[in-house]
Amino acid sequence: MGVSSSLRQLYQDEYFTVFVDERMRIVHTIRSDKPFGAIEELDGIFARLGSALDQVERSRYGIFADIRATPGRNDPQFEAALERLRPRWTGGFRKIGVLVRSTAGLLQIQRHARRDGVKRLVSQDEAELLKYLTEED
Question: How far apart are CA 99 and CA 105, in angstroms?
Fold first, then answer.
């Protein structure tokens, strides 16, 4: 994602960077390549991320989650924790688009979407996601 002048940074830590594009009404979350540590740390990480995202009126924005750099992880404890915490990240947004690096990542996120019962577009194509997020319902 090229950072344009229409993007304003809302938040950054070692795991996430968050930008908002007021013109396009898209919040961009970019996941770093730093692996999550202990499962117990996830609540604090996602609480801080959620607080940053609460600075925008979620129902008026699409969220673009770029997770291409994310280290792969799918152990049962981690999956259960993320299932519980994902709503703090993507909940309440008008539309959800997830940018993945690989077919395996695409399949994993599609599985999460089915489990969550939340519609989201998962793709390896940034332009496709931006088009989806800016289209009217």
Answer: 9
Q: How far apart are CA 79 and CA 81, in angstroms?
A: 6
Whether residue 80 has pLDDT greater than 70: yes
Q: What is the pTM of this model?
A: 0.92
Range name among 26-30, 85-89, 108-112 with the lowest pLDDT average: 108-112
Radius of gyration of the chain (CA): 14
pLDDT of 4 reads: 52
Hey, which residues does 98 pair with through a beta bridge? 65, 122
Spatial separation of the C-alpha atoms in residues 134 and 52, rounded to whole Å = 22
Integer Cα distance of 58 and 77 in angstroms: 28
End-to-end CA distance of the chain: 24
Q: What is the C-alpha to C-alpha distance for residues 132 and 22, in angstroms, rounded to an integer?
A: 16
Assess contact for 129 and 21: CB atoms under 8 A. no
The mean pLDDT of 14-21, rounded to a whole number, is 97
